[in-house]
Amino acid sequence: MSSPQRADRTSPASDRAVTSLRERKKAKTRRTIQEQALRLFAEQGYDATTVEQIAEAAEVSPSTFFRYFPTKEDAVTQDDYDPLLMEAIKAQPPDLPPLTTLRAAFRTAFEAMEPEELDRMLSRTKLTTSVPALRARTMEGLYSTIEMLAGAVAERAGRDPRSPAVRTLAGAVMGVMLPAMFTWVEHDGRIPLPVLLDEALGYLEAGLPI
Question: Where is this region: Disordered (predicted)?
């Protein structure tokens, strides 16, 4: 006969529930900090806004801010899009060509975003294209995204992610996406970003005809 479960022990299901609740709270805090940062940057300007002001607006301490964002720049440049994109890539049929796979994955990932999230992305993109310090950080992020895409393509194709062919493909994808992002900013988001990205990747898939 098994002994009754001790009251101070939690079941695996309870552990998962607690962990899920903590993760949701962390995600909410992170989102609130970033939202307040973007609001203050728009109202006061990036350089004139301090971490202390952002923390006060988000109702957290400066130390809490730094737990989520190591620097003020990170409150603009960090996002959660890469995991979503990776999931979309993995969900594509295995027989699709690499470029078709990426185009379909980007379409899936961006079309699933809520309007509020796209608004935050637009605000962040405006800042990264206008503030020199943020442009430099954005370039670091681009390198990381290219490596991520190269890894995903290589895994599906059974290739070396460091091979010139794989890296060139990943770089070309990012290369055609950047002008689409610039167009999105120029039109203040009036043209849907998923439409612009899909059009750009379609040009690349067709061999960039002019």
Answer: 1-29
Domain check: are 120 and 37 in the same one?
Answer: no
DSSP string over the chain: -PPPPPTT---HHHHHHHHHHHHHHHHHHHHHHHHHHHHHHHHH-TTT--HHHHHHHHTS-HHHHHHH-SSTTHHHH--SHHHHHHHHHHTS-TTS-HHHHHHHHHHHHHHTS-HHHHHHHHHHHHHHHH-HHHHHHHHHHHHHHHHHHHHHHHHHHT--TTSHHHHHHHHHHHHHHHHHHHHHHHTTT-S-HHHHHHHHHHHHHTT---
- pTM for this model (two decimals): 0.79
Enclosing domain of residue 53: 14-71
